Amino acid sequence: MKNIIMLVKSYFRQNSLGVAISIASGIVLCFLINLMGGYIKNSSLSKIRVGVIDYDESVLSSDFKSYLAGDLDYELIENADYEYLADLLIDKSISSIIEIPEGFYDAFASGNDGKIVITYTDDFENAAFLEAYMNSYLSGVKLLSAGAGGNKGTFDIYLSEYKSLETPVSKAKAYEIDLDEVSRKEGVRNTFGFVLQIIFALGVIISFMLIEDKANGIYNRITVTPVKPAHYIAGICIYGLILSLIMSVIYCSYIFLWKIDIGFSVIKLFLLLMLLAFFVICFVVDASILLKSKSTASSMIVGFSTVGAILGGAYFDIDIAPKSLQNMARALPQFWFMDTVRILMNNPAADVTPNVIILVLFSVLAFLIGAVLFSQSYKNA
């Protein structure tokens, strides 16, 4: 034990930069929580954008657009090019496309019914409300048209008087939410991808230390010192865990002190982070023993981290991915970490024991592989 403590102390003296990086990483994650939360809050408060093509360009079509923008607070993107608006719709830059056909005014002024065409993709909720508002407006115009009896002059008078009434539109929230609380929670949710990347990045520091020690012949000199191979590996692994611990403490403390409700206990999140960090350290040790150069090891670690975070669902919902990718993701520890966090955020009372067991098995497997690799490497040294 004394040898292990001595090694850990020496690593802190020799690699104080690693500690600084760990502290900086924790602070950056706290900043990202605010940044992501602010972005989500601004997106929630932004107006719904709707594309409009006005083929009629009449008094009635202008009144309808005024109804949408003024009374209902929609942001109208007017453009005569349907292809341009279609591209915005596909990119989800607008919610729907409204086409006001030519003859829209003439149809109502002559006592007939007019219609408006709405095109949308998958924004069904907003499209349903927009269609309801449109039907409400058209119902009012139909009454004016019927009262005018097909006389355009009378219809214009009725429309002018109708506009001057400034009939208020009653709007109510479907449900009440605390936008600040939701934005902070979603801010945390959107930082998990960065958390995964940073934990692996801290592991690269351990990898470089191991590879440098191999290149400098420390492996070979272990046998003539009181320090045994097991002490050496334990010391460097503990140093790596402490780096992840520092980052995790700063990250979780920020969530706790700012009282961000992530849906479950911050302590559980901390323990999950440390369990993942243990796997990362074991994985990094395995890679560093197998590989000889820093560039190869760092490429392998960063590559595994990036692919794992993407397939694990840190950046997008893995349920929308093809089935083959979903099955592939289950072979990665990042998937089980993200799945556990996602389940707990949605349901704090959920039983995530199977997920935790799988994470533990990943860590144990990586540890055993590392033990075998180091044993063989030590015998060949």
Oligomer: single chain
Number of domains: 2
N- and C-termini, Cα separation = 24 Å
List low-pLDDT spans.
Answer: none
Strand order of the largest sheet: 2-1-3-4
**SSE pattern:** HHEHEHEHEHHHHHHHHHHH
Instruction: Provide the β-strand percentage band.
Output: under 5%
Using only C-alpha atoms, the radius of gyration works out to: 31 Å
Count of DSSP H/I helices: 16
Shape: elongated
Q: What class, by secondary structure content?
A: mainly alpha
Number of strands: 4
The biggest beta sheet is recorded as: 4 strands, mixed
Mean pLDDT: 86
In a nutshell, what does this entry contain?
The chain has 16 helices and four strands. The chain has 381 residues and is mostly helical. The model has no long low-confidence stretch (mean pLDDT 86).
What can you tell me about this protein's structure?
The chain has 2 domains: about 1-40 and about 190-380, no CATH class; about 45-180, D-Maltodextrin-Binding Protein, domain 2, CATH 3.40.190. The model has no long low-confidence stretch (mean pLDDT about 85). α11 packs antiparallel against α12. The protein has 16 helices and 4 strands. A 4-stranded mixed β-sheet has the order 2-1-3-4, sandwiched between helices. The protein has helices spanning about 1-15, 15-45, 60-70, 80-90, 105-110, 125-150, 150-165, 180-190, 190-215, 220, 230-255, 265-290, 295-310, 325-330, 335-345, 355-380; strands at about 50-55, 75-80, 95-100, 115-120. The chain has about 375 residues and is mostly helical.
